[in-house]
Write a structure and sequence with these properties.
It is a single chain. The chain has about 140 residues and is of the alpha/beta class. It folds into 2 domains: about 30 residues; about 110 residues, Glutaredoxin (3-Layer(aba) Sandwich), CATH 3.40.30. About 45% of the residues lie in helices and about 20% in strands. A 5-stranded mixed sheet has the order 1-3-2-4-5, sandwiched between helices. A hairpin with a 2-residue loop joins strand 4 and strand 5.
């Protein structure tokens, strides 16, 4: 009997391959800069996470929960940076309570956790609340 997580992963990989092939054949490389880099955080879910990670060259994801005080402190900073760094990076927010599959696959055990994805790969992980200047210093090497 195959593990459900493995089966889910295989399905998602097939879907992403189909999506990339379709996107490349439709000339999606010519998206407008606004489409490529929204100036507000995007809402991520278990269903759109893989697509988003591969769609944006630099995606910075805030893993949070509504009951988490430090997460509520980081949220306005993410909103500000999303606007300030539009055109350079895309920010996303994923509620770990509503999207347990993605959180489990990535091993998110503490929140807030911010993961930097570059060209589809996780390249950095920042755990805990921090000020705007601290967060900028952590993500600036990736921009």
């Amino acid at each position: 009997m195959q593990n459900w997580d493995d089966e889910f992963k295989e399905i998602m990989q097939r879907k992403m391959k189909t999506y990339r092939e379709r996107r490349n054949s439709n000339g999606a490389n010519y998206m407008s800069n606004k489409e490529r880099y929204p100036n507000a955080p995007i809402t991520l879910t278990d269903f759109n996470f893989n697509e988003s990670v591969h769609k944006y060259p630099l995606l910075i994801v805030d893993f949070w929960a509504a009951w988490c005080g430090p997460c509520r402190m980081v949220s306005p900073v993410i909103d500000q940076l999303s606007s300030e760094l539009a055109g350079k990076a895309v920010f996303g927010k994923l509620n770990v309570d509503d999207n347990t599959n993605t959180s489990n696959v990535l091993g998110i055990q503490s929140i807030p956790t911010i993961v930097v994805f570059k060209n589809g790969q996780a390249v950095d992980r920042i755990i805990g609340a921090m000020t705007k200047s601290q967060l900028i210093s952590k993500i600036s090497p990736h921009i």
